[in-house]
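During the first year of the project, the team set up a workflow for recording each protein of interest as an amino acid sequence followed immediately by a discrete structure-token representation. This format lets reviewers and collaborators read both layers of information side by side without switching files. As required by the reporting guidelines, we include two representative entries from the current panel. The first entry is reproduced here exactly as it appears in our internal archive.
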Amino acid sequence: MTTVTEAPPAPARPARPRVAAGVVLALLALVPLLVPANVADMLTRVLAFALLAIGLDLLTGVAGMASLGQAAPFGAGAYTAALLAKHATTVGPVQLVAAALAGGLLAAAVGWLLVRARGTYFLMLTLAVAEIVHELAGRWEGLTGGTNGLAGVPPVSLYPGGPPVRLAGVLYWYVLAAVLVCAGALWVVSRSAFGRTLRGVRDNEERMRSLGYRTFVPRYTVFCIAGAAAGAAGSLWVAQARFVSPADLGFEVSAMALLAVVIGGRGSLWGAALGAAVVVLVRDELSPQLGGRGPLVLGLVFVAAVYLLPRGFAGTRLPWSRDEPAP
């Protein structure tokens, strides 16, 4: 008589990651109540730049398409938000959606050709497009203000007819909510069947083609999604700075975003956010105290991350960590 052995139940997922995430979110929500206004302003910039890095990580880490051109949709979103604030509406969510559309449309316009390239060719083409957009922003004085940029951008309001948001803490909460919504959407994309397709194309494009996938479509789609995320980040950046110039479309923005992805760990969206925090803190806060040597410190951090943490901060094994898909 054959004895049927029941399979052991699947182990329950540990609750520690969810608890840790809840603690982090609670601390982020309490920031305006715990720190002075200037620190809240700085952390608002960190959040906006983190969204740019998360969108780039979806493109670079998940899809395997390293880009040096994310400053272009970031700047397009920033200028869209600034122009809307000066001439149409100060409602922050409206500016956010419009900026995301502007970044996505710019990515869609140039991506149709760019995503056909691979590797270093794709990297250099994205850089070339970003430099063209940067030059255009500097010369189109009637729209962008030229090299002087657009100053005096009105503060955002949270709803039509609402009062302008002038308190640093309230603005921080608005940017935090927007980043959580956008980053959550990007996380869902990375964990979906589409995200698995992107990883398949990244790891073995020829095999995906042999299985019947049109690899151009997911590559083009994720390029547009990353552009929309960059545009949304540009809107949040302007909401805090209330100023935008061609420097926001420069090479440094793209390079710093890619550096944040490498430091944080490719393929891990929360790692990209952590890398963005390191980059902004070193560049904006630590550099003035070191006599402008922030880029040197960032270079040393990058070298240390490459040699000591090949998978970035996200690759550090924590007691409650779960395996991330390999980049």
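The second entry, processed by the same pipeline in the following quarter, appears below.
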Amino acid sequence: MTQQKSIFPISPLIKITLLSFYFALTLPLPFLAEFTSVPLPSILFWLGIVLGAIALSGALSERVILDEEKIQVTYPNFFRFFRSGWSLSWSEIKDLKMRTTGQGGLVYYFITHSTEKAYLLPMRVAGFAKMVKLVEQKTGIDTIDIYPLSQPWMYLILLVFTLLLLLVDFWTIWTATTQI
């Protein structure tokens, strides 16, 4: 008998938006540093941008894996030094508790029978509704009122503004490189 496994990666819309936003904020820095004669070599800026992109990419490579025995949050091997992920068997899960974020949003935590330790329910995955339905099937916890933290339209708006920022960045880079 084969084991049923469902994998839920971070939503591509969220991943693309956040990576684009990162590059929109950082790409002009080496050019502006050169243009304004900052006493640091531009290679340090490029190195920082690359290392930051790797770190962000690792954080955005989170995957939620559900199978017959457990729910598991994993990260790529190169990123496990920073975030190790977690795993809970379905029998360990006692409840899902709602908490309010500092910005007024709602997040949910798995509460266990044994330790009362809380594990954050990943909310930015592709197929969130399907994942929550599977959690309900495996645990018996009512999930009818659980919705993603942010809606896709919010990330679409951020992506549009990020693309506008990138246009300004390219103009800034072009201006800085043709003025040197």
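For the second entry, the following points were noted during internal review. The mean pLDDT is 89. The radius of gyration is 21 Å. Both points are flagged for discussion at the upcoming steering committee meeting.
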